Amino acid sequence: xxxxxxxxxxxxxxxxILILLFLVLLVNLFIMMGPKSSEYKxxxxxxxxxxxxxxxxxxxxxxxxxxxxxxxxxxxxxTLPATCLGADGPDSTLTRLMDWFGLPPAExxxxxxxxxxxGRGRLxxxxxxxxxxxxxxxxxxxxxxxxxxxxxxRRRYQYGSLFAHLIGYVGEVGQAxxxxxxSFLGYRQGDFIGKQGIEATFEDVxxxxxxxxxxxxxxxxxxxxxxxxxxxxVQPGRDxxxxxxxNLQNALAxxxxxxxxxxxxxxxxxxxxxxxxxxxxxxxxxMTVGISADQWNAWISDPAKPFxxxxxxxxxxxxxxxxxxxxxxxxxxxxxxxATELEPCLGGWNFGDRYFRCWKxxxxxxxxxxxxxxHSCDTFYYQLGLMMDIDQLAAAARAFxxxxxxxxxxxxxxxxxxxxxxWYNDRxxxxxxxxxxxxxxxxxxxxxxxxxxxxxxxxxxxxSGGRTPDPVFVISPxxxxxxxxPLPFDPRHLAWCRxxxxxxxxxxxxxxxxxxxxxxAGKTGTAxxxxxxxxxxxxxxxxxxKPEVALVLLVENGGGGxxxxxxxxxxxxxxxxxxxxxxxxxxxxxxxxxxTGETP
Length: 600
Description:
- There is one protein chain.
- The chain is α+β, with helices and mostly antiparallel strands.
- The chain contains 22 helices and 20 strands.
- It has 2 domains: 51-242, Penicillin-binding protein 2a (Domain 2) (Alpha-Beta Complex); 246-280 and 308-578, DD-peptidase/beta-lactamase superfamily (Beta-lactamase, 3-Layer(aba) Sandwich).
- 37% of the residues lie in helices and 18% in strands.
- The strands form 6 sheets. Strands 2, 3, 6, 7, 12 and 17 form a 6-stranded mixed beta sheet that branches. A 5-stranded antiparallel beta sheet has the order 14-13-20-19-18, with helices on both faces. It has a 3-stranded antiparallel beta sheet with strand order 1-10-11.
- α10 packs antiparallel against α21 (561-578) and α13 (323-332) crosses α16 (390-398).
């Protein structure tokens, strides 16, 4: 082949190769710009974008008038990737930050290791950072690859210990929370979850849904993009409105003062709990920032039990507050009438080989049924109790809601105990007990145990003739209504019982609860306590002729109910009737706007 012909062949082959290469490039360019454009775009974004999981702010908690009780305070944390702390110790970035901020190396590393062991992808070096610390990170960002200032919401309880037992508190999600389906609900280490009270019961309402955002970063991991892409967006938690009134709650706390005591007030018509306070209490704000081991040990070793909600968790013998139950049981069975006189009170009653004393050792003499209630004569009620059997007395108590949990809001509410034949047989055997238990039960002692919340419902149902529903703590979101079973007592007997309780305050042991211009009906009680001084009770409602509110006070180791609990009740009732908003419907005005998400 001649040189010219050989050159021409090679030239055509070369041109063909160039054309093929050009076609390959065109085809690839078409594929990149067409069918696979989104895929390549995504890969490009991955090279310059990072994903951040953003926790949802919790919903707020408000009182019945819309006053905010719990909300969120937005703070900033300084965080860095978990890779900053390797097997060989901290990297240069972490070392630099500890030096700048004056952080103790050993303690800081131990804290970060703990976070890393919990599976966190990013570690919190400085929580709730100060402005100088934030400025230092922002100004020196080029020297701090992967370090970020992240905003987060911290729970804030506006009134501290005043609502601690009702609202509860939040705490960091632990492994136990994740093990009980927490991970399936989207929780991660470092999230916060309701631990007690409303925060725990309404966790699914308050928690919201976390979101993820995409941010554009440079090679050092510093955010440089101007726009944020959410996939998906954060859904804040919804709000919860309580039936509690801030003013009435504060008045109850002031009336109780420094006593180890509790109280609960309830609307007679709606069953809405207007105030419920247990003292001593604790500041739930401390639970959101972390408390020292010394503080925690001081709390849990305190004999007054500041974490113990006496309104729903504590059970006590009701003492003489139980005598209306005994009276109504006897009246409904036809064993006595409202004017019956029994054997006179000489200071006690003999039963078998035991002598059961009356609280008045000198005796009340001859009294009829009304005077026995007004002056709380134990001897009269010993005799009345012996006229019935234990199941008849228990049935009368249970008709008012005693001996069972009264609300679903607090799943750990104590049920108390209203003993009957089966209970005594299980406890002592069929021949292990006698009718002598009726003497103690008839005056609210023995094995009878109730909570202050149950007794407030008892007082409200006495006042309303049985129409008060079970206690309502939350107005929004609305709770399922419960059917109110009618009381199995003659309305005339209930009216007589209310009149007797009015006379207790007018001229009996409850006189220290009397108001100048508003009639108050009530009953005092002194519950025997085998572990110390007796407990002091007061139960009542007002106005006596047209009841609005029922109130129960319990002073632990207070002694006599008339001397210790009745004055506390009087102080709160004075504040109640002085409050112009006491009858204002809940979730109105500011609260309506609050519940619907509008600005109050």
